[in-house]
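ARCHIVE ENTRY
Sequence with per-residue tokens
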Amino acid sequence: MGVLSTLMRGLIRGADRMSEFTSKRGSRTHNKGRGVRPTGLRLSSRKVLYIRTMIPEFVVPHLEGFKLKPYISYRSLKGTDALHIFIHIVFISFGEAIKDRTYRLLSRQKAHFSFSVIELLLKADSIHS
């Protein structure tokens, strides 16, 4: 194994787990104990007594007739762009009073400064509060 691959393994796995876990470091039933719950008891004779209730059992529901698919579609529906979401969620929730107030602020401040729509909504919200 090369030096570069050994260094990369040290960065990825951590310094305490840097060397490769081979059969010389433990048998196939050896458990290092990192993030794994014990599945039995260790006897004084150094044997392991496996206990069925200590072994994790995963309960999976019956998925026959389940309508959702096991993947996520990355296609977005029509009308989910940022402007559409802003108009339907933020702007409508403030109501008619803010629409009138933002129009007045736009007409007053048009000659002096250029405000973004968000700044105008925040100003109008602070005036009405």
